[in-house]
């Protein structure tokens, strides 16, 4: 009995000890959970019911200077999925199968996205109808968050200037990047207690911290001017088959950019799409990494980020520096032999008119006729130190300070000692140094602004949602580069270039314009391209009191190459539109100076080159053409100034020609000529003829008429009659020599017609005289 009692007692003691130990363990665990880990577990518990949701601020709008919206926000929906709300695997499977096609996602990818078990963003910026279709399916764990995406009403207009935003609403490139923090504002928060399905708990808390919307940016850009820039850009691309075009218009007194156009341009609404069909085809054979590299190239703003050799447009800087330093003046005489040959270990440097040197020529005319040797002499007189001083003073080799990202500084000599003799020579006319387009136009604007260099800007001010100005971007003067006296001399010289020089196609009948053309061989990685050019025009208007500057750059035009042809006409069109828009009173050329000696320009279209030359010189005018390989078959197809325009006596008429050496022939104007005068010419170009009317006399009618195109070997009908029958018709009755119309010599003409009467010599000399500045073989490397 005692034994059983002892066993019983032992069991009781064991149980007591067991329960005591168990109690200690439980108490210890509770202590660990409630005391040691209490804060952590409380936090986790609260995280299950307390949620924080971001309230995205509205991004500021971007306006042009007149209040037109260039970048806005449009409503867009973002799809989230919270796997915590799923009721088992069946819910997950249903969500994946039904949601994937609506958000255009592979089911496997969607499954992977949901594997974390956390609330996950599935698709951003879905259309409203797609969001509604998702909601109609009433799927577990689906959330549709209303927000916005960026939209650019004008598509690719000013895309390099505006930039774009990424899927998170962060500005990329352009104004969107430069002013991202101002445009973005600050996000708000919603703090609330909710269940696994993100539903507000009845007894839970809810606290809202509102977002501060971003400020809106008011640009200096005028959308109307920008539209004209884009139209002219596209016209140049279509007409001259160029690789690229950049055009800038700047207000000289403030530095404000009124328009900035670049081609190729991307679509800010879809920046990762190909810029054109050609690029889309290339992308088919590219890796994703190569395509991404193309994106970055597309997004670069060449006006701010890229550099190029400015060519003869840089002569404005050389001339301004030398006049300011009083080492030259506009009337100072230089002597052009056609070459610079005295630089040791360097090839000869050619003049544009090397075959017929200018001889004695003033600086004023040297600028108008783009005489390279004269500018070499100007720079030698100026000296290395002064030349570099003014390069820097005009803002080259440093950032202009424009409010856009990634601005390049260009390539200029590091010191005056580093400028070689050949470098000093070639840099005088814009070779051997590199600038950005924004640097060049800003420097030329200083000439139009009494010599004061400004800081360019593209944003005028930042305003809040009520339109109140919060911050103004101040107009900023950088420094006085040249005196107002020097600036005025330069303005007169620039007007001479347009009215009587290489930039005649920029001559306007309603505003006086000044400027300078440039045509430079394009610099590639391995040196100068022999058959690729950068053609340009830079100018100011109205030249008597400049309001705007303009720069037109054409990259590798195919059908024509010279700045006077491909860039100047667009500059004139843009200037006329812009000045009218700004309310600048027209000042027709005929009313500029009634005391000047004017002549009417004759009509030489569809004349042979020799005849056209004689008609021009007989009117006390001069002529030029920037074409090469001219033959006696060459026909004038257009002229500038046009027939009938009133111009200064001695002005230059520029010819656009057709060599007439293809399968089709242009019928020249033969009215007023006798058969024996034109028979040899027609036989030479392979065009037959038959006569009607009188047996003798002059040609009074033609069929087909002149300017028509016919196939080689076809016949034309020439009707003979008396000269009286030509009354009112277009004829000049010039003389012919050996089948080619004779051209009289005129002093200082850009294309000097020979004194001899032989056609071969006429054509040979004209061809030689039309080689633009230096040939690629004559040029030093860009680092010279």
Please write out the topology:
Blueprint: H1 2-36, H2 38-49, E1 50-55, E2 62-63, E3 69-81, H3 89-99, H4 107-114, E4 120-126, H5 128-136, E5 142-151, H6 159-162, E6 164-165, E7 171-172, H7 174-178, H8 180-184, E8 188-193, E9 206-209, E10 216-219, H9 223-240, E11 244-251, E12 257-263, H10 277-283, H11 288-299, H12 302-305, H13 315-324, E13 333-336, E14 339-340, E15 349-350, E16 359-362, H14 363-368, H15 372-382, H16 384-393, H17 421-427, H18 437-448, E17 452-454, E18 459-463, E19 469-472, E20 477-480, H19 484-500, E21 514-524, E22 527-541, E23 548-555, H20 563-566, H21 568-581, E24 598-600, H22 609-618, E25 622-624, E26 635-640, E27 646-648, E28 652-658, E29 664-666, H23 675-685, E30 688-693, E31 698-703, E32 709-711, E33 715-721, E34 736-737, E35 740-741, H24 759-769
Parallel strand pairs: 2-10, 25-28, 30-33
Antiparallel strand pairs: 1-8, 2-3, 3-4, 3-5, 6-7, 8-9, 10-18, 11-12, 11-23, 13-16, 14-15, 17-20, 18-19, 21-22, 22-23, 24-27, 26-28, 29-32, 31-33, 34-35
The CATH architecture name of the largest domain reads 3-Layer(aba) Sandwich
Mean pLDDT: 82
β-strand amount: 15-25%
Low-confidence parts: 730-784
- Based on Cα principal axes, name the global outline: elongated
Q: Taking Cα atoms only, what radius of gyration do you get, to the nearest Å? A: 38 Å
Text of the CATH class of the largest domain: Alpha Beta
Question: CATH H-level name of the largest domain... which superfamily?
Answer: DD-peptidase/beta-lactamase superfamily
SSE-based structural type = alpha+beta
**CATH topology name of the largest domain:** Beta-lactamase
